[in-house]
């Protein structure tokens, strides 16, 4: 009976196992822990899951019969709920619907880019519509001029003596200025009133601050002068007291009669 060396590689953190078994041993007879036997399968480095009825003799290397057999104990992965194919199809549909529609960088059979051709067509259409755009601009300018004439009091019914329509240059501005115009911009009036109130408040605050500073300055100056006057008065009183004391301490003067008697 031939004995073969078998290496059992367990998942981490379990240690590997080296055993000596006869070649007639089946895969199901290998010493795999019961906790792993039901949730794992055995495989070699170059094969898929092995059948439990596979003997070790079928796993010998043809080139090196004495080479040890290495078996990996691989845990089984629980299957999902399915639906992966439908998810792939949905993703493919979304990818196909989001294809780029900008083909301006492509070229036609003559080698011109499609973007250049579209730009040339756009320029040609613009040149064709230029007269219509110019007429539209002239009509808008004419309407604006008529609105200005109506605002200045120039009506179509008003005509000069020769029957021609009055022009803006013929309007008497002095007469137009004498007319009374009602100003009805309430927003402007409110803003103007608010600005005036703010200016008055700012000026009043500045004047009050100036008066306050002036009073404080006068108070400081007046207090200093009063202090100086008080010091001068005290010095004079001290001098008077000293002079009076010196006068009292002096001996009485010698009279003429007393000098003759002596």
TrEMBL record:
Keywords: Cell cycle, Cytoplasm, mRNA processing, mRNA splicing, Nucleus. It is found in: Cytoplasm; Nucleus. One of its GO terms (cellular component) is nucleus. Residues 5-78 form the Sde2 ubiquitin domain. Residues 210-262 are annotated as: Disordered. Residues 216-249 have a biased composition (Basic and acidic residues). Residues 79-204 form the SDE2-like domain. GO terms for biological process: mRNA processing; RNA splicing. Pfam families: SDE2 (PF22782), Sde2_N_Ubi_yeast (PF13019). Belongs to the SDE2 family. PANTHER family: SPLICING FACTOR SF3A-RELATED, SPLICING REGULATOR SDE2. This is Sde2 N-terminal ubiquitin domain-containing protein. It comes from Cryptococcus deuterogattii Ram5.
């Amino acid at each position: 009976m031939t004995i073969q060396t078998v290496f059992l590689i367990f998942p981490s953190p379990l240690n590997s196992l080296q055993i000596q078994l006869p070649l007639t041993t089946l895969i199901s007879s290998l010493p795999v822990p019961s906790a792993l036997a039901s949730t794992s399968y055995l495989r070699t480095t170059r094969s898929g899951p092995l059948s439990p009825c596979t003997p070790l003799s079928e796993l010998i290397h043809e080139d090196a019969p004495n080479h040890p057999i290495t078996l990996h104990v691989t845990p089984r992965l629980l299957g999902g709920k399915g639906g992966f194919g439908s998810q792939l199809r949905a993703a493919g549909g979304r990818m196909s619907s989001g294809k780029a529609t900008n083909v301006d960088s492509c070229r036609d059979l003559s080698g011109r880019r499609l973007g250049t051709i579209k730009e040339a067509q756009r320029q040609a259409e613009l040149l064709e519509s230029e007269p219509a755009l110019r007429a539209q601009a002239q009509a808008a300018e004419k309407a604006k001029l008529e609105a200005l004439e109506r605002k200045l009091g120039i009506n179509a019914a008003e005509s000069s003596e020769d029957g021609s329509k009055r022009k803006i240059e013929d309007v008497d501005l002095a007469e137009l200025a004498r007319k009374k115009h009602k100003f009805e911009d309430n927003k402007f009036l409110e803003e103007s009133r608010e600005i005036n109130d703010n200016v008055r408040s700012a000026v009043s605050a500045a004047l009050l601050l100036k008066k306050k500073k002036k009073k404080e300055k006068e108070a400081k100056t007046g207090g200093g002068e009063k202090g100086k006057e008080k010091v001068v008065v005290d010095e004079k009183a001290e001098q008077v007291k000293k002079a009076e004391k010196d006068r009292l301490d002096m001996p009485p003067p010698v009279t003429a009669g007393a000098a003759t008697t002596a």
